[in-house]
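URGENT: need a sanity check before tomorrow's submission.

F., can you look over the EmrB/QacA subfamily drug resistance transporter record below? I want to be sure the sequence and structure line up before it goes out.
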Amino acid sequence: MAGICAGQLMVILDGTIVNVALPAIQQSLGFSASGLGWVVNAYLIPFGGLLLLCGRMGDLLGRKRLFITGLGVFTGASLLCGLAESPAMLLAARFLQGTGGAVASSVTLAMVVTMYADPRARAGALGVYSFVQSAGGTLGLLLGGVLTQTAGWHWIFIVNVPIGVAALALAVRVLRAERGTGLGAGLDVPGAALATAALLLAVYTIVGVSGHGWNSVHTLGCGIGAVELLIAFVVRQAKAADPLLPPRMFKGRDVPGALGTHTLMICGMFGFQFLAVLYMRKVLGLSEVQTGLGVVPVSLLIGLMSLLFAPRLIARFGARVVLLVALALIALGLGILGRISVDGTYVTDILPATFPLGVGFGLAMPSLAGLAMSGAAPSDAGLASGMFNTMQQVGSSLGLAILSTLAASRTGTLLAGGVTQAGALTGGYRLAFQVGAGFVLAAIAVAALVLRTPRPPADRPTPPPTDDPRPLKRDAASA
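Structure tokens as predicted:
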């Protein structure tokens, strides 16, 4: 478990640690204003596009093998990023880094679930995994500021190397080897190609919205192409003998409901990780390190809830009930941020939102992870893990595109009306937070209407550990 979490933390950190260092990277390597965004996009596109395929490959070839391969590629690419001396070299290394991150991340949730058959032990493991997933992005903002200010931007990449080497050594030694079902079990090559192309093009379209606009020929053309590829993939799945996405994955309502809820929640919550940082930097005037420290309360609360309270609450009340309460808290936190003011302070405008956001997200992620994996047989666990991580990546990219576009549009309108720069920025961020709260309210509606996980009886005894797989399967399905 330690090896899995160390590797996953390294990958998650990289998603946000770069954001703080972008100005320093631009000045050092001479990126243009339009080209600078590709330091992020070159990582996001392969990462989001390859998760589903890599998850299925983990089921066929062995998840440990794929995890170690992905970690090795990611670690080597991180070193190349740190040594980059030109924009082209950095972008190529970032693309390779995103590829390695996708290979490693696609199977992590599957390995966690298959390692722990007992429902209570699995709930605790999912809490640890969810903490790494949730708090890693926030920690990246803090480390990015500290490393950029003290050691230089190169070190935000080089720091991954010793972590990656340690994670690799631990994974090779500790993780149980598994053979996988083998390629003979069936890999739908045309379906895999269509799904990967559709996801790559979809993520490319979304991340390009900020530069091209929603109504541009580029966005509409690429978006239509992604939809056509997705339709072709669905048609292929209906005809394939061994489809990439077997229909058995969607027999119940919990898996599709959890995936839809997860996507909407991430769309809304991502506004905090991105827009709250901009508000603290551009309106409140906080330094990079102060901004990183400003989001630490959320990470601490996420850790407290996901590690200590979420497993107990899920075992007592069921994942669906815990999830609904958690989503309501997230919506409340974003609603508080929707009232930020131009003359506000961190204590009055940001800090009050950190409690409901941290508690809510810390409870929501373990609940969603358990629900999303509830319908997966051991032979499909990697695919289910890939789907869960894909929806998280698509949700974050889509949420960022929508919320940042709305904020920029509102800011431009206010500036044209004579409002001050700080006032216009605040008005844009306020609108984005309110829309983000709307996404989470939509997630509540989906969870309430679709999910049907029953509440476990309060007097249900804890099943003793056993080597018989049949009761473990039955308990895991009801967890």
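My own read: The CA atoms of residues 11 and 101 lie 6 Å apart. Confidence is low (pLDDT under 50) at residues 454-479. If you see anything odd, call me.
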